[in-house]
Structures are given as C-alpha cells and as structure tokens.
Amino acid sequence: MEGKSRYTSSMKSLFTITTTLLLGALLSQFPEFYQQYLQRVGGQLDGVRLEISDLDQRAASVQTNRFQYIRRLLENGDPIVQNEGHSLARLLGKQIKLQRTFNDLNGSDPLWRSVGFAKHFNNDIAVHTLYSFRPAVPITVEGAYYFSLGAFLGWLTSWLLGRSFRHQTTRND
To answer: In which band, very low, low, confident or very high, does the pLDDT at 167 lie, cut at 50, 70 and 90?
Structure first.
C-alpha cells in the first residue's frame, strides 16, 4: 500500500511541476505576442492613414475637405456613390478606433498590458498575429513577471485538481 501511495505522490508532484512550468512558459510568451500584436495594429493604422491621405487629396482636388467630400457622396442619389460615402465614413471611424487602441497599448505599463490587451482585443488581429507568431526567450522583467504569473496559475490549477481528486477518492472509499 505504501508503494502505491509513494507512486501517487510522485505522480502528483510530476503533474504539479509540469503544469507549473508549462503555464509559466506559455504566459512568458505574452510580452512577445503583445509586441507582435501591437505591430499589426500599427500596420493597420498606417494603412488607414494612407487611405485617408488619398481621400484628402481627392477632396482637395474639388476644393473641399474630407468631411464635405463624404457628405456630398452621402447626399448623392446614386446608391453606389452613397455606399462609397458610407465606406469612407467608416474608414474615418476605423482610424479613430485604431489610433486609440495603438496609443493605449503602446503607452501601457508592462505589468498591466494584459488588462489593456483584453480591453482592446480584436479577434481578427489576434488570429493573424497568432498565425505568424514566433516565440522569444523572455529575458525581461516583464517576461519574468508573466512566467511567474503562469507558474502560479499552473500550481493553483494543479492544487485545485488534486484537491478535487482527493475529495472524489475520499467519497468513494
């Protein structure tokens, strides 16, 4: 019976260590993922700025500004022209949103980045970032912080699962 108990204890320790290190290593990659996500947000913002610059040039060519130009498109009776006006209006809104996101993410405190990331999370950007994500060795304080957080969560998960398992086996005995 003692051999079984020692085996169970050994397996529990191995599970705890594995879970702790795995979640620690996984979360330690957050700073790199965040940086790559931020680059994608910045790239989209640059693209929108180019489109708006082109809009400004078109508006200037007819002696108007971007807002008057869009208003004229929206007031036009042709649905195709109106659709273009709606598209350009959405583009201006997209610039505001991306600029706010970029500023908030770029200026956030390293230890609170996960909160800002959750607040400004964009599934499309995240999926594309994950698709091309390249892990990095976290040798920064921020990387150590996220490793420690992940290790703690791994330990906690292991502890909770072990407690639940002990509770189940106690009831079954």
So the answer is: low
